[in-house]
Amino acid sequence: MSKFKKLSHVIYRCDYHIVWTPKYRFRVLEGIIRQQMKEDIEMLLEWIGCEKKELNIQIDHVHLIVSVSPKVSISRLMGILKGNTAIKIFKSYPKLKKKPYWGNHFWSRGYCVDTIGLEEEKIRKYVKYQEDQERRDEQEGFDF
């Protein structure tokens, strides 16, 4: 039962693997923007009452493994994460609004979400070490 959490009338384990990208998959999630994004996502998850299990921000997408209360829908969670981080990024870095085709939208419209079941540890390792694997693949000459 240690992997389960409790609320007053429910015992749950709702873990999700979520991936989302900046609009047009622009490669802007690096350096200070990446650090600010990490801090903002962690702060918002705490505010909503969700537990971050893994977070990996790569140059053109974000991987998040999160435990979500049954009271919070995934669409609401993503609306809060994407909406609030976009507003803060555009306020902090107004020149990003001038990027071609960007307008007032930082994130692409959709996202990918998957539930995590018995293979949790395997998925966590994938999220944590994916960037290293992509770097090795690039050095070996694979093109994706």
Offer a concise description of the structure.
This protein has three helices and six strands; from the N terminus they run βββαββαβα.
Task: Provide a descriptive summary of the structure in words.
This protein has 144 residues and is α+β, with helices and mostly antiparallel strands. It has one domain: 2-Layer Sandwich (Alpha-Beta Plaits), CATH 3.30.70.1290. It contains three helices and six strands. The strands form two sheets. Strands 4-5-3-6 form a four-stranded antiparallel β-sheet, with helices on both faces. The protein has a two-stranded antiparallel ribbon with strand order 1-2. Helix 1 packs antiparallel against helix 2. The longest helix is centred in the C-terminal third of the chain and has 20 residues, at 120-139. The relative contact order is 0.20. The model has no long low-confidence stretch (mean pLDDT 87).
Features:
144 residues, alpha+beta, Alpha-Beta Plaits, four-stranded antiparallel β-sheet, two-stranded antiparallel sheet, 3 helices, 22% strand
